Amino acid sequence: MQTRDVIDHYRAEPGYWFVPKLFGIGATPVTWQGWALTIGFAALLVADIRFVHERIAQIAIGVALFAVFTGIAVRRTKGGWSWRWGIRG
Predict the structure, then answer these.
(1) Rounded to two decimals, what is the model's pTM?
(2) DSSP class of residue 20?
(3) How many H-runs (helices) and E-runs (strands) does the chain carry?
(4) Which of 10, 27, 29, 87 is the most buried (most CB within 10 A)?
(5) Pairing between strand 84-85 and 27-29?
(6) Dihedral sign for Cα atoms in the order 25, 2, 18, 66
């Protein structure tokens, strides 16, 4: 794998906030919008854990936050999410 291939992989294209991970499943934020979404998700999850004291409500809110975050991230990832084994050339 060439360094240039990795650099090109992490270049954001208009309309996309994330790029797929090189190995495995998931995505990496590459724009300020992607980072803002990721940090906002983490902050809301911490607030949920800290301020919601009923365990069932805490879990429900956490699952809902995760579902919304993942749904947005999948739609804003170039090429979608699937298992990857590096850059194929």
Answers:
(1) 0.78
(2) E
(3) 3, 4
(4) 27
(5) unpaired
(6) positive
Nearest to 29 by CA among 69, 57, 86: 69
pLDDT tens readout for residues 75-84: 999 887 778 7
Q: Which residue's entry shows tokens 């934020």?
A: 29
Beta bridge partners of 18: 29, 77
| Main-chain phi, psi angles of 12, to 5 degrees | -80, 140
**DSSP reduced 3-state for 72:** helix
Q: Where are the domains of the chain?
A: 3-85
Q: How many CB atoms lie within 10 A of CB 20?
A: 19
Is 10:22 a contact under the CB 8 Å cutoff?
A: no
- Largest Cα–Cα distance in the chain? 51
Tokens standing for residue 60? 């429900």
Distance CA 85, CA 87 (A): 7
